[in-house]
Amino acid sequence: MITTNEIMIRLLLAALCGGVIGLERERKNWAAGLRTHMMVCLGASLTMIVSAFGFADIVGTNGVTLDPSRVAAQVISGIGFIGAGTILFLKEGVIKGLTTAAGLWTVAAIGLAIGGGMYYAAGTATFLALIILWMLKPVEIKLTERFAQLGLKITIANREKSIDILNRIFCQPDLEISNFSVIEKENDIIISFRFNNHKKNLVLDMIDQFKTDKDIKSIVWNK
Hints:
Elements: H1 4-26, H2 34-53, H3 69-78, H4 80-85, E1 88-91, E2 94-96, H5 98-115, H6 119-135, H7 137-146, E3 150-156, H8 159-170, E4 177-185, E5 188-195, H9 200-211, E6 216-222
Organism: Niabella ginsenosidivorans
Membrane topology: Multi-pass membrane protein
Domain MgtC/SapB/SrpB/YhiD N-terminal: 11-140
């Protein structure tokens, strides 16, 4: 049977570990910040304690057995609805909040570990999570900039002009096209491109040329 002091230690430690990871999200002004991470970790720890020790009075009576892992599994799967609430679809191809959702899932696992008395595993996971979220951020930014792609979407009024635009873009020797699509919507032709190398000036020059064309209804570009 677990003592009251041990319960207090586990719950406090869970709140602390969740808070440390939550601080990293809080400084970036995410909705799931300090208090959310603390509550998730604390709740997961309490759930594990209840799962492991809360049914001690009936275990062994009338053949009753206990499997604490069943409740832990439900916590890991159930935390998904909170994580889903932190994911934002800002625009086509741009999704924010996946790291925060993964952090909440990890915090729940840390809480379960603390609730089960696995302090070393919980502490190590908290330390590694902080390295991933904080110290590796500059590396991620550099890699993102290096492999960034540029998107270009052009809406054209007629089919003949769309063929001309495609030829002009494909004839640009310095543009590495990763993919493109042509969609006919009502009376318009929508051409979308993704470029491998991020040559912003070259694309802007090309857009300036397209602006003077009366058959082009709109031009949208983003990275």
